[in-house]
Write a structure and sequence with these properties.
Elements lengths: L5 H4 L38 H16 L4 H13 L3 H14 L4 H13 L3 H13 L5 H13 L3 H14 L4 H14 L2 H14 L4 H13 L3 H14 L4 H13 L3 H14 L5 H12 L3 H14 L5 H12 L3 H13 L5 H34 L4
Helix pairs in contact: 2-3, 3-4, 3-5, 4-5, 5-6, 5-7, 6-7, 7-8, 7-9, 8-9, 9-10, 9-11, 10-11, 11-12, 11-13, 12-13, 13-14, 14-15, 15-16, 16-17, 17-18, 18-19
Length: 377
């Protein structure tokens, strides 16, 4: 089940958000090194077949607008193309025309996972089960939802149900590997991820997670092998490029890392983590202008993660933009974010400093205005 995994593998692997994130306030500059590794050229894409399929399904719906199956098929195609709004509309229409088909609710659940809306995804998957659907895809999607909700024991139960239905179902092993990685059982994580690849070599997320595990273990040659293998199966996957950026950053090859982060942005312009990584690299070199610019873009593209706002606030403070830094720290407090305690301390620290700076700036502006009025004397 290769998903788009909403924002940096929130649904592919949440820990990727943390993996390789640079400590913003570290002193010193990152070393850069040249590399003879050739970054793969951007492949061309042929969307002709998808367009033809969409037209054929639309024509079929036009000819018979009461057939739910064609709405389901078009919803599935839109989902595969990451056209989530039309996918949702078609899936909803299919359930309205025939509310007894579990597979219609399953596609709805998968759409909600990508949006993301885990509450509605959970409702849809339960409806699919009530309609009698019992497929490995159903149980893996249920496991995926539970994994995202960090309900790991329940997720494992759902994934094991999938394997009872189909013992060689690769996505079940993939998500079991991801769950075990979150639980800290690296041995079982590696075993399941490797099994996923053995059953279906195109399980790109398994390569990605195996690479991250090996980066953490500082087994860099094996990590790179997994990433190169994953790229072979998915040359347009932004998360592989993101992981390659993390890999080269871990090797102090910042220039190459930047290229891969930019490639990830190219393949998914809405992904916020590449901006976060680029901002962190700039911050590590105390290039606050570039850091702030990238962190602002990360904030703009992030819907669920407060980390970009924290990094932006920290960078603004280091750049002496105290009022704007204070504003962003206050946002973290208001949002009841995971960084609320640190943000509250920052607000207490910055409020008097920002007030003092504002007065100094005001006096400086008045003095400048007087000088200008006197002809610059």
């Amino acid at each position: 089940m290769h998903t788009n995994l909403t924002q940096c593998f929130l649904y592919r692997q949440p820990m990727m958000i943390v993996l390789g994130c640079l400590i913003l306030l570290l002193g010193g500059c990152a070393k850069t090194a040249s590399t003879d590794t050739k970054i793969p050229e951007i492949p061309t894409e042929n969307t002709y077949s998808d367009a033809v399929r969409l037209k054929a399904l639309s024509d079929a719906i036009g000819a018979n607008p009461t057939d739910p199956e064609n709405f389901f098929r078009r919803a599935t195609l839109h989902f595969e193309m990451d056209n989530l709004k039309p996918a949702y509309d078609d899936a909803l229409r299919a359930t309205a025309l025939d509310s007894n088909q579990g597979k219609y609710y399953l596609i709805l659940a998968k759409i909600f996972v990508k949006l993301p809306n885990m509450t509605e995804a959970d409702v849809a998957i339960k409806k699919a089960k009530l309609k009698g659907l019992d497929t490995p895809e159903l149980h893996v999607t249920a496991g995926q939802i539970l994994y995202i909700q960090r309900k790991y024991p329940q997720a494992l139960d759902a994934l094991n149900k999938a394997l009872k239905v189909a013992e060689s179902y690769a996505p079940a092993y993939l998500y079991k590997g991801l769950v075990y990685a979150e639980l800290g059982d690296t041995t079982k994580a590696i075993s399941n991820l490797q099994t996923a690849i053995e059953q279906a070599p195109d399980q790109v997320d398994a390569y990605n997670k195996l690479a991250s595990i090996n980066i953490g273990k500082r087994n860099f040659p094996l990590a790179k092998q997994y990433l190169v293998s994953g790229l072979r199966f998915a040359p347009r996957d932004p998360f592989i490029y993101l992981s390659l950026g993390d890999f080269y950053e871990s090797q102090n090859q910042a220039d190459t890392a930047k290229e891969y982060y930019k490639r990830a942005m190219f393949f998914d312009p809405e992904l916020y983590v590449p901006y976060l990584r680029l901002g962190s690299l700039a911050a590590k070199n105390k290039n606050w202008t570039d850091a702030i610019s990238n962190f602002k873009l990360a904030v703009d593209h992030s819907t669920t993660d407060d980390l970009p706002t924290l990094y932006l606030a920290q960078a603004l403070e280091r750049d002496n933009q105290l009022a704007e830094a204070l504003y962003n720290f206050k946002k973290l407090v208001t949002n009841n974010s995971a960084y609320q305690q640190d943000a509250e301390l920052a607000v207490k620290r910055l409020e008097p400093l920002a007030s003092k700076k504002a007065k100094q700036d005001s006096l400086a502006n008045v003095a400048k205005a007087k000088r200008d009025a006197m002809g610059g004397k």
